Amino acid sequence: MSTAITQRSASAPERGPRALAETTADETAAQDGRPDPLRFLVSYNASNLTKVVTELGRATGAYWIDAVQRIAKPGDAARRSLLWLSAMADRREPTWHLPNEVALSTPFALLRDFTEARHRDDDVVPTLVLPPQAGHSSTVIDYSPQQSQLAMIRAAGLTRLYALDWRPATTATKHVTITDYLDVIDRSIRRMGGKANLVGDCQGGWLATIYAALHPDRVNTLTLAGAPIDFHAGDSVIAASTRLMAGTMGMAPYKALVAAGGGNMPGSAVLSNFISIQPQSEISRQLQLLENIDDPTHVERYRVFEDWFKYTQDIPGAFYLWLVENLFWRNRLIRGRLTVGGRRVDMAAIDCPLLLLAGSTDHITPAPQLFAAAEQVGTPPADITYRTASAGHLGLFMGRDALRHDWPVLMETVYSHSVPGTRRASAGTGGAGRAARRRSSVAAVADPRDTPRVPAP
């Protein structure tokens, strides 16, 4: 079950960026007591190998049992194999499902307006969602008609709803920088009225945090889901591999990848990296497809996920190299040493309500990487919400369990800070309103019971 903590203890460490001297990755590891990155990676990969062997054994046993049961139909195995290969090869470009209009267009990002015509004059602070940006389409926040983070947010009463859509990098946009991304967020919020609730998923979360620190007057509430803020906290294979590689070879390997991509980070390379982190998920997904190839519901759920996961897009090279060096390697955001456009990113400047959603099985962004944000911001403890969902990384953004049980609770809190007089409403009226919005937002997402699940990273 999900857990929530809405206030820190009085003994929590003092907030505010810590002025630390620059150190190498190895020195940092020694100081914080974490295991050697190489040792951690060896142990992690050995564990993964065991899981891969276990899954292959399970699938092989299931295959032979099924083959014996179908022995009277010798042509059936060939038919199923052809269907399996066809389903794996049938990829389509992911799409947005909710109607929207493009309110702002740049070569590297689009501002999409999901506000329905009847709600354009609603007296509610607008909400801007920043999707993940890791070589995949931004449509993960509107994953399917049955699993849409945007539909859930809108049903929670945050009816003036917008999202940024990160466009695939091209030769023309390979030099786009962090300042360009922050500028498009600022232009979007100005177009929305000058102040907004920011919701940042994964990479969109640290981007939202940087923006909020530089422009605290434009952020009404800040919600972060699966977002790395302290990039070196917790047991993270991404952090360990970056510290090991950059600590020994600097930025050379990453620059070589970008050079091979013509100045951009190839989305296919990012995908390969994600698959290598948990290869058992990829193997399990394909083998379960074979086992359930005659189940149209399972095949359709498989297709929807694969369309999003395997349809990759490149990342601007300059932006990618900046984030690897400054965030993943140097960890400058949490340490108070990050500068953007000549300005220091001071997280203590963030004083708006802060909502943090982590996944209990998130191997991409362990909970400590996210929850570390609470110790750096200037938000009063009573306005900081921690919540842990029973989900992995992607499940935080598109999983039906998280969308039905965790996001409605968080967005109800955001709503309470977004409508005049909401917090002053009487217990009876306010309670009834909250219950109605909660029911509406839960109903916006299909019930996950008795539905096939597709293994995802």
Automatic annotation (TrEMBL):
Region (Disordered): 1-36, 421-457
Bias kind Basic and acidic residues: ranges: 447-457
Compositionally biased residues, Low complexity: 19-30
Biased composition (Polar residues): 1-10
Signal peptide: none
PANTHER family named among the record's database cross-references: POLY(3-HYDROXYALKANOATE) POLYMERASE SUBUNIT PHAC
Protein name listed in UniProt: Poly(3-hydroxyalkanoate) synthetase
High-level lineage: Bacteria, Bacillati, Actinomycetota, Actinomycetes, Pseudonocardiales
